Records
---
Amino acid sequence: MKLATRLTVLLVVITTIVALSVGWYAVNSSTHSAYATIDNTINSVVQSGEGNPDAALSDAINADEKNNYDLTLDVVFANGSVTQLISANTALDRTPSLSNVHSSLKSVVSEANLPGFLIRSLNIGGGDYLVVAASTKSVKHASQQLIFRVALAALAAAIVMVVVARLFMRRDLVTMEGLIDFASNVASGNAHEPVPPGLGSRDVRELRQALATMVVALQEKIEIESRHAESMQMFIGDASHELRTPLTVLKGYTELISNADVSADQLDRALGRMRKEIERMETLVTDLLLIAEVRELPEKSMEPLELSLLVSSCADEFHDDQAARRLDVTIDPNVWVRGRRDLFERLMTNALGNIARHTKPDVAVRIALQRREGSVELRIDDAGEGLPEYGAAPERFRRFDSSRSRESGGSGLGMSIMFDLAKAMNGSMTTSASELGGLRLTFLFPAAN
């Protein structure tokens, strides 16, 4: 059953229940009031004759005639015979018994042998009694008519509700049915279906907007996951290639040194090359493990860290190792960030190690740490050859030029490791051309103070 049909049925049921409840209350109140009127009429006649049995009959008759009540007055004698003194429009057509008389002396009652009538008795002396009776036929007929009108009113209200619901909710229902079909298509994998137009009430338009936003986010998530899966496949392929190369070299040299005719010089060269390949493979595995660790770092592992002291210490060590270089250092004091000391030290080691490895020994270097509004900026410039392109996020195992090769010790992971380290500490890294003529690395981190 469609949503529109369900809502319409629900509204009709609610309207019908409400109309019938109100009608039942009206019928019940009207019937109760009518019976109370009959009771009052009978009681007024009986009360007019109470207290004086000798004049009770004449007083009761006078009260009935004076008020023109539609009542039947029967006299039941002590021997059980009955005489009807006054006949109503709907007269009592059955003979009341002495048992009826005695049961109705105190209040108005209905008797099983006198259906359709209410009676009350009055002692008129000498063992005789006056029975005052009133027909309930008109009350029952009026109640039936009222019930019929209530049923018609409930039916009319239900029809009106159907028409009103269709008129006022048509656009909402059409839009919601379209959104349901759209959501079903998205769930089936067709996430590129256009979102239905936003017609109807504000709630429906907000629902459409929320659904559209969710689908866009889902599409972006799918695209990101696809890119991640593709990137991971490339990463695994590149990593296996990078590891296969030193393993092939090791295998070749192992076969060489197993030859009994190998000379001492050849053995020394082979062992040296094998040692170098093992060290490079060890570095590569360490870098890969670091990348995996950085991606899974929990936020709670970060703590306040005085970056001013750490950068100053790394700069001093670099100057001690690269004494031939002109090093300019500008560091704002008391600069704090949230992070991990070992990760910042690795970031600085990678950045300065790349300069030491891939530029000439006398190339100038500039290190600047400055506090910005709500953030901290770390810049590392060199006067080397720079990069062929800037700005893009670094790719795994990519070497930008022939100087950054396996022979120089590079694995192609240095830049991407720095990028991941900065991201893990809620920061960012960008590359650009330096004023010194080479490469500028710019790191931005949220300030911790």
---
Amino acid sequence: MALFRTKEIIAASKLPPEGVKLSRMIDAIYFLPIAYFGVFATFHMHFDLLAGDWDFWIDWKDRQFWVTVTPIVEVMYPGAIMYYFWTFYRQPFGATLSITGLLVGKWITIILAWYWWANFPMNFVMPASMVSSALILDCTLLLTRSWMLTAIFGVWAFAMMFNPSNYPIFAYSKQPLVADGALLSLADYMGFTYVRTGTPEYIRIIEVGSLRTFGGHTVWISAFFSAFISMLMFTIWWQVGHFVGQSFFWATGKRGVKYRTNDVMIVGTDEYAQRHGTPNGIAPGASGRATLAEGKS
């Protein structure tokens, strides 16, 4: 399946050269500055409000909450974006577009605000990467062509791949060390060195015991829990995309009465024809209205 069938689409639209040029200009204005930059700006704000600290400070990237919260929050926005691009354009890159956009927004904040302005070292505020998880999610939708199977298998892999794909980046921060007689991780020691605000939200609590050590089975317990919650979140946000991006059109019934019909597919597609039992994907009454319009002209 070709992802971009531009020549066929232009030929089917029967646009004049001026119309083709204007269509390309609209694509350049809409998809690049508005769609992509709008995605990473709004997704960045969404992520910071729900899981910002857990994926921000390196000493907050602990076993339970970082592995649990981050995939759950990061799968929400891609669910709605994937619905939009897959339903109306049949393009399976909604998750990759969202996650890369989020990564761009986060790195802009890290470089300009926290490194250049606040003088925090980059490795202390470096975000995690979920690009590999997003690619798996998009590939699952492309191969299965089913959002339900994507929610079951793709989202499960999306959450389970989070820790293995980020372990090579942040494994150094989990090394144990003894400071003033206390057993800490390197990330905790960096948290004591670079002091932040003193509000209760940012007061670091160092756990004592084996529940939070420097790795272990609790990572996978948290990942499994995150995978199941991520399935639910993806399903909810896919329906959010359906609610916001729902198309509607006016059709004419057998008695000539016009009525509003809601459908998730664009009129003229094979999916619409199979769903409504119309030949060649033509909406009910469309051929009659076309004939009537030709007669009036």
